[in-house]
Amino acid sequence: MCLGIPGRVTAVREEHGTRMATVDFGGVTKSVCLAYVPEVGVGDYTIVHAGFAITHLDEDSALETLALFEQLGMLEEELGAPQPAPTGEAVS
Amino acid sequence: MADGTVVDPAAWTCPAPLRGGERVVLGHGGGGALSGELVEHLFLPAFGEAARAATPTDAAVLSVGGERLAFSTDTYVVRPLFFPGGNIGDLAINGTVNDLAMAGAQPLALSTGFVLEEGLDLDALGRIATAMGAAASVAGVQLVTGDTKVVESGHGDGAYINTAGVGRIPAGVDLRPERAAPGDVVIVSGPLGMHGVAVLSVREGLEFGTELHSDTAPLNGLVATMLARAPDPADLHVLRDPTRGGLAASVCEIAGTAQVGVELEEHAIPVPEEVRAACGFLGLDAIQVANEGRLVAFVAPEAADAVLAAMRGTEAGAGAAVIGRVSAEHPGVVTARTGLGATRVVERPLGEQLPRIC
Amino acid sequence: MKYLDEFRDPALAERLLREIRDTATQPWALMEVCGGQTHSIIRNGIDQLLPEGIELIHGPGCPVCVTPLEMIDRALAIAARPEVIFCSFGDMLRVPGSRRDLFAVKAEGGDVRVVYSPLDAVEIAAGHPDREVVFFGVGFETTAPANAMAVHQARARGLTNFSMLVSHVLVPPAIEAIMSAPECRVNGFLAAGHVCTVMGSWQYEPLARRYGVPIVITGFEPLDVLDGIRHCIMQLEAGRAEVENAYARAVKSEGNLPARTMLEEVFTTSDRQWRGIGVIPESGWNLSEDFAAFDASRRFELEDLTVPESSRCRAGEVLQGLIKPSECPAFGTECTPRAPLGAPMVSGEGACAAYFHYRRLDPPVVAHG
């Protein structure tokens, strides 16, 4: 039900008076309704649920969050505290 | 933190007769648990001793005049008839060729039976027939006999095709699910999920854009190479082509029949990014999605390296990868180690995840 | 896949787990109220990886699971009518009503179709003017904007053969009901990320204050869930009880304003029966008077049904987080996905189904790596 996936808008058009887009999810494209995200345009990332874009994905925020995760435990590592090795395997 | 009540994995498979419904539902055709129940509780009791004694494999093995013949049949009801990468004709030939190949047989001859709907476009039928001829030629198999029936318009979606095939199993080859043994290496011949996603992409109501095409292909050449290059052909214990129900259904069936455990490594299972993306927004698990040109092999550990190298030297097996091992733990249950290092159980799909996929 | 794969990185997950281990000094019980998060937790084994003492209680976050039996029976009755094309999301098809499910109705000749988006149902209505097209509008606030737009479009296109059977449920009243229960053990909440994408985080402020619990807006990928847990525990250890946003890339405090405007126009709030829990006041949405013409429950004359639940199904206790699915005596024996007693065993996001599909081993295999 909460199945919302991020994708990138590659084209925008009008259908029955509603703003629609082609959204690219890692190579697979789908037709999505943009009515709720008037600020989203070609090249933007959005989260799609049940055929609707529900928000403009904030890419800066995403990168900040990831950078923050990278920082966790960094201070302890710098001070030379013993740490368990990360698993390091890629996730499918 | 521990769970509460002890749950016995064997107990969940209900031994009681089919319950909860008097009609066939789509799920019975899904290749998953519901299909299995229909066979076990409705067909086998009616079909006699030989059927009941047979274990669930793709092909039957018959002894004829000192030789072993493999004999198999399959019926194709894919909708739509034409999809990226092929049509129902390709599936009809390659599917039965592959069932025979999974028994280690070199396919000799196929029959073709058609149930056509009145009104089917002759041009479309011509394209299907052409595909079948071409596929048979690539696989090196003869189409020797067949039958055609037509039903009134409104009864049958264009075309249904049945193919049955016979092939010869060379001496020394022994491929049966019971042979899966602790220590065996599990190898898959290439990337998964392509056929199911390709068909769904043109399924009415779901349409989405993709470059993906069905992986439909004959595997008898790949199997012959694997048998030839293994130290001993008997080092190959089980072969299965993961069609409806995907890799999960195949591996779960084998684990169940052989009463062994299987431990897969999720990160090692090859799934193309596009398949993952499509499964992402459709809410599907890629290992439960149908394939039509892949096989999964259970190989004796001492032969695994040679077999893997042989596979990678072929076109059909270029993307081959080791995805797990057979264990003596948790017999009949398949587990997978997730990216995070936790363990989850792998299920065969219950019923009809993707209706009319092959 | 961009903005998905990065949030599944095992090395970063390990760092987050380490932070959680270093921060927690005592046991805490956290609840998520989102089927998608429940599924992600069980599927990825996050609860197996958390330190001893940090417990995740699975709340009533699966809208399919909480749809009352009467509503399912109503849907089945409509779907069985020969003039109707009944459209639904896939996960509703196998939810058992009192006697059968939508798959069975299909087997008996009912025209039941799975759609990806409610707009697909509107297209079907436009293409079949001679048939009545009904869409089963189930979901939390995340799905409501899509359903609202479908009804809105149907009206704009002048369609007279489209209607919706609405059974929407709302998260904040559910949290209130959980916190008001005397047996409640919940110390902190992970709020559903995409529900908040639509509605914003402002609704949770009064709840955090009234009940003194931290509420952390959380996403779905493993790193998002771990980060939500981390923030929650940090607050609990510091004695704070605030609303925090740990899914900033997709959630703003005011939510999605165009969506909220549409929701106010199309829906009105009402009391709603939650399967296994009971009536929660002001916890559901129905179509407003303005859109009464598109309300399937008014368009189709149906008897008023009161249906008793299976006495063996303990979905209510599971949905409230009082028991784990594996603690239910029927789990895995009488109640399996093949023959479910209750909705949480059927829905892809139900806690019972998640446990069944991923956790049938005993003892649980300890995570390695």
List keywords for this structure.
heterotrimer, A: SH3 type barrels, five-stranded antiparallel sheet, disordered C terminus, B: 358 residues, 60s Ribosomal Protein L30, Chain: A, Phosphoribosyl-aminoimidazole Synthetase, Chain A, domain 2, 2 domains, five-stranded mixed sheet
Summarize the structure in words.
The complex is a heterotrimer of chains A (92), B (358) and C (369). Chain A is built from 2 helices and 5 strands; from the N terminus they run βββββαα. With 92 residues, chain A is an alpha+beta fold. Chain A has one domain: SH3 type barrels (Roll). Chain A has a 5-stranded antiparallel sheet, with no helix packed on it. The relative contact order of chain A is 0.16. The longest helix of chain B is centred in the middle third of the chain and has 18 residues, at 122-139. The radius of gyration of chain B is 20 Å and the shape is globular. Chain C has a domain at 64-170 and 255-299: Rossmann fold (3-Layer(aba) Sandwich), CATH 3.40.50. In chain C, α2 (35-44) packs parallel to α16. At the A-C interface, β1, β4, β5 and α1 of A face α1, α2, α7, α8 and α10 of C.
Q: Main beta sheet of chain B, described?
A: 7 strands, mixed
Q: Architecture of the largest domain in chain B, CATH level 2?
A: Alpha-Beta Complex
Low-confidence stretches of chain A: 83-92
Unreliable stretches covering 5 or more consecutive residues of chain B? 1-19
CATH architecture of chain A: Roll
At the fold tier of CATH, the topology name of the largest domain in chain B is Phosphoribosyl-aminoimidazole Synthetase, Chain A, domain 2
Class by helix and strand content of chain B? alpha+beta
Order of helices and strands of chain A: EEEEEHH
* CATH structural class of the largest domain in chain B: Alpha Beta
Number of helices of chain A: 2
Task: State the separation between the terminal residues of chain A, measured CA to CA.
Answer: 22 Å
**Using only CA atoms, what is the Rg of chain A?**
19 Å
Strand arrangement in the largest pleated sheet of chain A = 3-2-1-4-5
| Overall mean pLDDT of chain B | 87
Strand-residue fraction of chain B? Answer: 15-25%
What is the total number of structural domains of chain B? Answer: 2
What percentage of residues of chain B falls in helices of 4 or more residues?
25-40%
Q: Give the termini distance of chain B in whole angstroms.
A: 43 Å
